[in-house]
Fold:
Amino acid sequence: MNTSIKSVKNRLNPNRFFSPDPAIRNIASELYAEVKDLPILSPHGHTDPGWFAENNPFSDPANLLIIPDHYVFRMLYSQGIKLEDLGIERLDGQATETDPKKIWQLFARNYYLFAGTPVGAWFDHVFHEVFGIHDTLNEKSGPLFYDSIDAALKTTEFLPRNILDRFKIELISTTDNATHTLAHHQTIRDADWEGQVIPTFRPDSVTNLLHPEWKENLHELEALVAEELDSFATYISALEQRRKFFKEMGATATDHGVETPYTHELSSNEAERIFSSALRGDVSLEDAARFSGHMLMEMARMSTEDGLVMQIHPGSYRNHNDQVMKTFGADKGADIPIQTEYTRNLHALLNKHGNNLKFKLIIFTLDETNYAREMAPLAGHYPALKLGPAWWFNDSIDGMTRFRQLTTETASIYNTVGFNDDTRALLSIPARHDLSRRVDSNYLATLVATHRIELNTAREMGKALAYDLVKSAYNL
Structure:
């Protein structure tokens, strides 16, 4: 790879991601101008609440932009770059690279790999709009980028709370296990700061009977509720108590990262039998799957009672790479999409709760072939059901466009929930929302240019997609 590329100044085109057709591009530019500065609502993500509780400066560019972001290091790993060399810690404690400048330079030398990807688009936005660096990142310019970003991180402007204020991030939600104490969230609530950082209740670690640490997590849950969970009834009561606590701490939603969206209601005797088997450590794969389906039913029932919005993120084969999982642990970029069915799998849940106007269910998918076939027709019928935005591998320029094209005709935009960034990388949030607003503006401009909607209607739809829908869907 030739790394002697000359720097190009001011290379971010103001009409980036818009159609080359002048008729569409001009309308898209006009629509985007009306939504680009709206506040950001980030109702589902994975940022660390400790950042905002402690409000300490970020240590260096590598630890902020590379090490926590599996979008970045999964691409580099695919090209044979060792995770150890990117500063990813090993479970066995063996040495990994700790020099942030070396990690950054390795990233800079290989930045060309991200050309044409959403990651590249996000980083270009961060470099240009957030740090004011208008060069091309490569091996030669790497030290300049590092020093410029490192200097910026040492200023008060880049303290975590100030980042939220600067980019008009009105609200940000973290994702927290059922056994989290939410101590950082309490610190945030007690602080003299108007920023909104709220938790999201994610019970997977105690509802997935095949989780490798299920028993340990159950014991943590017992400690939090001060009760032995020796029956299915006491287990359910404990989860209800934790949901109540999360809601008191500001949560408006739950999240369920299941392999499939299978739902099925067990009898009380069957639920008790499977739970008892899990306590003994001899639960079968079939029973674990049936229990997971039943727990989605239980969580939906609880949502009808406590008002928490229910999110289901299915269709990921988690930690597909056994070697990476064994060496580095979970969430290291090896989660791979699987084909996912919704019509039959959600039948039990939707028939019991889908007509309840007090219940809100948001479903996501990694299987975009399902948008028009099942998801849009389901959301276009059941009052409780809404479609989450193009997620993960589909969170891209073309992926978001396909989502709109395949769902709008059947479900309309008003049975979707706008955009959420689902990120661990704080500074990618304004970049991701900007890209989403550009893509949606371009999609709406296409509808206007082909005379399917009027310009004033597109203006209303653009504001809804950027702000209104997410605020309504998540009860913010």
